[in-house]
Specification:
Elements: H1 11-19, H2 22-30, H3 35-52, H4 63-67, E1 71-76, E2 82-87, H5 98-113, E3 118-123, H6 134-147, E4 152-158, H7 165-174, E5 183-186, E6 208-215, E7 223-230
Parallel strand pairs: 2-3, 3-4, 4-5
Antiparallel strand pairs: 1-2, 6-7
Helix pairs in contact: 2-3, 5-6
Length: 234
């Protein structure tokens, strides 16, 4: 699959195609190794990356969401997949930076792990309609399929309120039928079937007591690390 240089593509992405084989191969796998379809899908992704300005997402702009623990990577599930935690209660339906934060974490995982699949864990405890924007959910599913193929290894929905039952059915209609088996609705009683207590927050019956992002200083757009304290140390 030969991609030609194009002003609609960021130069670093163009160079990456030939430097990181796993990247174009993930798109080939998504499209059953049909080169013509893959080329079209991959090209649209490359153009989207430039229009979304993916290489220049400012973490300062997302700082409030980080501080609220709205979305973060931490730990692994029982199959060894990194977990992307999405704390819906901390995200307002009108929050415009939700999509930027999602793309930040998907891109970070892709570059750090060569596109290894994630376990998505939606913590819906205490959430309501004020925390959910349907178009944002559609964007997230679209991005996972067409911009970061293979990134969704599983989808756990924790303590889903009955008010969202219709939405869960709608989500199933949006995702590939082959991915339906990856969606699991879980509770505090069943979550340990998928994630060990060592990687679960305290309110889920786990041992992770406190989360805090560590910024270099007030003017930086970098995060040094994400810190965790286990309740075992108290």
């Amino acid at each position: 699959m030969q991609v030609k240089e194009d002003k609609r593509i960021v130069r670093s992405d163009f160079d990456r195609i030939y430097r990181e084989d796993w990247w174009p191969l993930s798109f080939l796998s998504l499209n059953d190794y049909d080169v013509n379809i893959t080329y079209s899908v991959f090209l649209e992704c490359l153009k989207w990356r430039k229009s979304f300005n993916i290489h220049n997402i400012s973490l300062l702009e997302l700082r409030s969401l980080f501080m609220k623990k709205a979305m973060y990577l931490h730990g692994e599930d029982l199959q060894g997949r990194r977990i992307l935690w999405i704390n819906l209660k901390q995200i307002e339906a009108t929050e415009r930076n939700f999509t930027k934060l999602l793309i930040y974490w998907l891109e970070r995982n892709a570059t750090e792990t060569c596109g290894a699949p994630l376990q998505f864990l939606f913590d819906m405890s205490g959430s309501g309609l004020q925390n959910l924007e349907v178009e944002a959910v559609k964007f997230a599913l679209h991005a996972c399929k067409y911009y970061f193929p293979g990134c969704m290894g599983g989808l756990l929905v924790y303590e889903c309120p009955p008010i969202f039952d219709a939405l869960c059915k709608l989500v199933l209609s949006w995702i590939d039928i082959r991915a339906h088996c990856r969606l699991r609705r879980i509770t505090r009683d069943t979550v340990t079937k998928y994630v060990s207590p060592e990687n679960l927050p305290f309110h889920m019956g786990g041992k992770v007591w406190y989360f805090f992002p560590i910024f270099c200083n007030s003017s930086t757009d970098k995060i040094f690390e994400i810190g965790w304290i286990s309740k075992d140390i108290f």
